[in-house]
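Design job #97: recover the sequence.
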């Protein structure tokens, strides 16, 4: 599905010996804990990020559009230059690709959560206390005993409470609504049929959920499952073809590795700690033009409502910034995929702080990296996230002049 915008930029990109580094601090944006206070980013000790902001261009980006709260998948697609309103895929495909699962044409994948329900069947914890991955493996082994005539089931652990369900068979459709209610105090939903051809798949999913309930009923805290993001693998334009960049992804969490794989990026081996990603970055620096480095913990702290932890994590990230700058990229972007204010314990629609540093940029007078400071930045108080990759290409000398 090549778009007019992609056709246009594909004709303009040119080869160059320049490097672009994108550091994504998941859930970066925040809110003050009380009126007139500081956000988590503003309260963090970030002298290196502040110095980068003073030398670069700053602003606040919107991943999807004004007032729209993004999921992590769509938000990352926007950062990679793919309009998430046009390029839509469910979390299931991203999670499956993220763990290296071999998705076939026609497979339907869903992201699963092990969760906790009370005696009345109401969800009390959507993440079952963030159980350890080892426990999740045991539970997946239990669920693999489920057999449903007419379909092959694959249940694979992802990380912590997350797992992947893949259905393989004839006449399957991903046009289903989530069973995850996205809130506590209510029962899991029945899979809503969003197209007539999905009724058969919905019946299979209902059978799986009912059997999973029975097999987990006596366990705690993970005594039920929630499913969301039913999807099949789409055929999308390759990142390298569109933007002319040999791209590498350094992410520990499978979902983000899945986004990268879906776009044709090379996913490098690394662990979740930032030190592991920086080591892999240095080891592969000469092999690629574009590097995406992901840091998850800031988002988790925000979702847990722990503003102080999120603040500490941002301070920790700041201490690693000199190691990234020592690699001497031509373009360095630091931003988040979306906002996750600790006071809200969830993703939000608030624009996300961003720095674009380059050897060819015009500093805009912003002296600190924070939500309020970025309002005055040269990128603007509300710019589309999909603009970041074309800006990076331009600053890296990778776009030719348009027209005579």
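Job complete. Output follows.
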């Amino acid at each position: 599905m090549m778009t007019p915008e992609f056709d246009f930029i594909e004709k303009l990109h040119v080869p160059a010996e320049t490097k672009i580094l994108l550091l994504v601090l998941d859930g970066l944006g925040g809110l003050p804990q009380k009126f007139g206070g500081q956000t988590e980013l503003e309260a963090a000790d970030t002298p290196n990020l502040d110095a980068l902001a003073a030398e670069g261009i700053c602003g606040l980006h919107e991943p999807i559009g004004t007032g729209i709260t993004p999921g992590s998948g769509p938000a990352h697609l926007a950062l990679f230059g793919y309009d998430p309103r046009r390029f839509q895929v469910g979390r299931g495909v991203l999670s499956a690709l993220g763990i290296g699962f071999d998705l076939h044409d026609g497979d339907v994948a869903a992201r699963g959560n092990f969760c906790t329900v009370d005696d009345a069947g109401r969800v009390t914890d959507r993440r079952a206390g963030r159980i350890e991955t080892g426990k999740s493996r045991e539970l997946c082994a239990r669920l693999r005993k489920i057999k449903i005539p007419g379909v092959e089931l694959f249940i694979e652990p992802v990380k912590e409470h997350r797992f992947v369900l893949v259905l393989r068979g004839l006449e399957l459709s991903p046009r289903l609504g989530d069973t995850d209610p996205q809130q506590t105090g209510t029962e899991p939903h029945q899979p809503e049929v969003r197209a007539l051809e999905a009724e058969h798949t919905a019946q299979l999913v209902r059978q799986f959920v009912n059997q999973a309930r029975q097999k987990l009923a006596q366990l705690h805290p993970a005594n039920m499952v929630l499913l969301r993001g039913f999807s099949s693998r789409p055929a999308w334009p390759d990142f390298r073809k569109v933007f002319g960049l040999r791209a590498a992804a350094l992410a520990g969490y499978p979902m983000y590795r899945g986004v990268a794989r879906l776009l044709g990026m090379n996913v490098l081996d690394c662990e979740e700690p930032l030190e592991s990603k920086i080591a892999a970055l240095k080891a592969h620096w000469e092999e690629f033009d574009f590097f995406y480095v992901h840091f998850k913990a800031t988002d988790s702290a925000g979702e847990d409502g722990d503003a102080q932890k999120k603040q500490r994590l941002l301070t920790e990230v700041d201490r690693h910034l000199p190691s990234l700058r020592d690699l001497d990229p031509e373009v360095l972007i630091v931003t988040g995929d979306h906002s996750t204010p600790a006071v809200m314990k969830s993703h939000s629609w608030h624009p996300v702080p961003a720095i674009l540093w380059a050897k060819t940029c015009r500093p805009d007078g912003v002296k600190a990296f924070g939500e309020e400071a970025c309002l005055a930045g040269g990128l603007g108080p509300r710019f589309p996230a999909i603009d970041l990759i074309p800006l990076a290409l331009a600053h890296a000398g990778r776009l030719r002049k348009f027209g005579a």
